[in-house]
Design brief:
Helices cover about 35% and strands about 25% of the residues. It has 10 helices and 12 strands.
């Protein structure tokens, strides 16, 4: 049975996290202080206890000149003795339902191990963020340069990403958590993270894309084996999109939801074949400092 966590199960989620990930109490106290919320935590109950869980953390994301809400999946785990029963699968599918209910068009995550890439691909996720090759500006220097005025330090940090398209944005509270985590681990160097994305509402994202690129005209036929609201044909013409299946404007592009995610986010689109490489401008999606 799937339900949201509550006061009586929060400790069980904590214990499960410790069992599966082995993080220190100091880190977990920080995470539960800043990020954990019962209303954003899905758990699977068996034998009258939580045996699998995931967090649905709220962030903002710059997409085609607009700021949209995204759901960041964190702490997806199952107790060892309950694995192989499909509980994580059920929680992931439920998290998509929650995203739809909350009007969140995009879900993102950071796969901590390579084998998870193929696991999440089964649920419509696509690789959309590359690992960084260069270190990000040192966080300690940003804080020290602002004489430990954390809000001014946040404004400097925020300026690095605020005007960048396809970037996860951080609130001041997010930055407080980032700063405390960095201090906890003696300010380790950081790079951009490899990450995956899953489109929940393709129509909304395509509408934002069309509004930014009003010179684009094409028809896209989408296939999504999980979310049928995405399984549709859209026509884009001079910043207007239509779901009228009788209207086709060439070129007609056929995508599964994974390829479409990469195209609309501009992920290595210059390497794609025509006409994708001309219709979808290349971007460099960015995700970092996710308390990973």
């Amino acid at each position: 049975m799937i339900q949201f966590a509550g006061d009586t199960t929060e400790q069980q989620v904590w214990d499960m996290w410790k069992t599966v990930f082995g993080d220190s109490d100091d880190y977990m106290q920080l995470y539960f202080k800043y990020k954990y919320r019962n209303e954003n935590t899905l758990i699977y109950i068996e034998d009258d206890k939580a045996v699998s869980s995931l967090q649905m953390l709220s962030y903002k994301f710059t997409f085609c000149g607009e700021v949209i809400p995204v759901q960041y999946l964190s702490g997806v785990c199952t107790l060892p003795e309950y694995r192989g029963k499909g509980y994580a699968r059920e929680l992931l599918l439920k998290s998509f339902e929650v995203a739809i209910e909350r009007g969140i068009p995009l879900v993102i995550l950071v796969p901590q191990e390579d084998w998870l890439l193929s696991f999440y691909t089964k649920f419509g996720f696509a690789l959309a963020f590359d690992s960084g090759t260069e270190q990000l500006p040192p966080l300690k220097k940003i804080i020290d340069d602002n004489q430990v005025d954390l809000y001014n330090a946040y404004k400097e940090f925020d300026s690095l990403f605020r005007n960048k398209d396809m970037a996860v944005q951080k609130s001041f509270q997010d930055f407080q958590a980032i700063a405390e985590e960095a201090a906890l681990f003696n300010y380790p160097p950081k790079k951009n993270l490899r990450g995956m994305a899953r489109i929940i509402n393709s129509e909304l994202l395509l509408d934002l894309f069309a509004a930014m690129y009003c010179d684009k005209a094409f028809t896209v036929s989408l296939k999504d084996e999980i979310l049928k609201n995405n399984d549709s044909r859209f026509t884009v013409n001079q910043s207007i999109i239509s779901k009228d299946s009788s209207i086709i404007i060439q070129p007609l592009l056929e995508f599964d939801i994974r390829d479409f995610t990469q195209a609309i986010m501009g992920y290595h689109t210059s390497e794609k074949a025509a006409p994708v490489n001309t219709l979808f401008p290349e971007k460099t999606p960015v995700m970092n400092y996710m308390l990973e």
